[in-house]
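Limitations
The structure tokens in this dataset are predictions for the assembled complex, not deposited experimental models. Users should treat interface geometry with appropriate caution, especially where small molecules or nucleic acid strands are included. An illustrative entry is reproduced here so readers can see what is and is not provided.
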Amino acid sequence: MGNMTIKDIAKKCGVGVSTVSRAMNNHPDINPETKEKILQTIAESNYVPNNSARNLKRTDAKAIAVLVKGIGNTFFNDLVSGLERECQRMNYSCILQHVEEQEDELDIALHITKEKKPRGLVFLGGSFSHPREKMEQLEIPYVLSTIRAADMEEKYAAVSVDDFKESYKMTEYLINLGHERIAILTAPKEDKSIGKLRLLGYRKALQDYGIPYSEELVSYMNAEEDRYSFRSGYKLTKQLLQDTEFTALYATSDTMAIGACRALKEAGISVPAQCSVAGFDGMDTGEFYIPSITTIRQPVEKIAKATADLLFDMIKGKEKPHQLVFEGELLKRESTVPPVKRKF
Amino acid sequence: MGNMTIKDIAKKCGVGVSTVSRAMNNHPDINPETKEKILQTIAESNYVPNNSARNLKRTDAKAIAVLVKGIGNTFFNDLVSGLERECQRMNYSCILQHVEEQEDELDIALHITKEKKPRGLVFLGGSFSHPREKMEQLEIPYVLSTIRAADMEEKYAAVSVDDFKESYKMTEYLINLGHERIAILTAPKEDKSIGKLRLLGYRKALQDYGIPYSEELVSYMNAEEDRYSFRSGYKLTKQLLQDTEFTALYATSDTMAIGACRALKEAGISVPAQCSVAGFDGMDTGEFYIPSITTIRQPVEKIAKATADLLFDMIKGKEKPHQLVFEGELLKRESTVPPVKRKF
DNA sequence: TTGTATGCGTTATCAA
DNA sequence: TTGATAACGCATACAA
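Predicted assembly:
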């Protein structure tokens, strides 16, 4: 039987449709026996309630939407998987929507909110610098995951590591290894999000250790291109090598670090012997790479779970928006060693 | 204004709701001027039609569902992105659903079909060996993407490379380099899908070139684990190294190839000097890896687009299910060289 | 070319 | 504890 409806079930059980609805939705005011019988019948009939009808009636959909900006960074894939799993656990649908680099994630969010009526939103990636008034048009709960704007409104819900601190940690580690000329691959100049924070962490560490900050060691991604990708890491390093010298290179993502390694290799520079390379994120690929990539591991599973939990709690009204910060872990691996002293 | 409906627009324009509906849905029987005016008003009011109501009325949702089995293989991510993009182009929603290794993708498909009423389905990954009768319960069009069962029903729609042929190509290439002891990392023994086909291609090539097939060179993935992942490549190679010797290793995915490289490295075997390594898929990560990984490039974008096109055509009734085969490309890269003659 | 009225499958309100 | 019935927002058959 192709298209059973709630009516068919009702008829089959000799009850009214509202009783069937109650049975399905765990309403309290129903006779346990009736309920049992109805659920039984439903199971046997392999009837599945029509989602659209439910959502129409409910005026919202039992779903959350996840907006992902930037696909070159495979880091998000793990997060998305985690979020999707949490949704399944909560019996929510997960609407996935990619946002192109040049698109405005907030516009898309606004649109999807009206169209699909999800109960909540997760923003992944992108630099999040929207005017407050525009953000307020978003009338449903949302969580920024692994995003944190430099000047972020405190009232936004967000889950992430402390990018400034973690980046400081990494830079400090490189400095303590003895590096002084540390190049960095970072987000476009305009970035106000994690890219900026990581750059600031880098600068602060240099400053604290009395190492002059030099613009020529900073390579900014191209705003139009896919950010944090293998290719951008490769290209930025190529450019860098033409202009300057350094004993360590800090790429602000693992994928970029691997791209960087190839550029170094093509320039005849061996990693880590002649140049140390560090990444950020802690992805599998960096663990298996040779040399394995020193990195800051973000606790992806925890972040995914916390993001989902926070969002669901906000949807239930059990929580107000607030910010959760997880500790990153500095993974010292093969790609970083003390510098060979060279003269410049 | 938070919740505009079609009525509000109708009122605003001084027309009936059906006229508004016609304007939105490109119906022919409408005065171009009226239509223009209505669309104008809609744009100004930032009204977005309620999807659930539409879908309810239509009895199906303007959506396709994509079922992805196996998340360790990042190859699928690119495919999913491509599919999602095509959906956006066609103004379809894309429902993404991950399927765990031990779950039955067909059961999930059957369920989602009833619940969300998508107009079509895409299956990614998984070995597809379901009884014909059960498949026939699926009453909407579906396409198997980058899957092909060894004994697949001809009437299934499928888009992929010819895994047998491509695998043959790769093995032949390794043989022509001079390798005779070629280990292979392959799907679990029970697999009846691309894993089996790739293994068969390998066997056939060996046979054609008079090289004896040896079970000890075949390392089967664990059925419970995440397939085609870095980790499985790593583990399988570790095991292999304990049991036997070989001059080339053919991993049936790029991710596994990279995992294998690490296991070889830990065993003190350098790639490619002492052991060649080849992959399959043609992912970015293999291009940037050092040494870059020889592989069979699957034309992901083309496959994604063809999958979507075929599915949409089937939905429109313009096409019957059929199978599309794309040519893979053997990318000869740094990870494979002629063998150093050793004695065994 | 247009408007009115009906129904899609649910959930929620109300009266029984 | 139940059942009839009215929405939910839209698309469409039918009448105008």
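Some entries come with short summary sentences. For this one: The longest strand of chain B covers residues 63-69.
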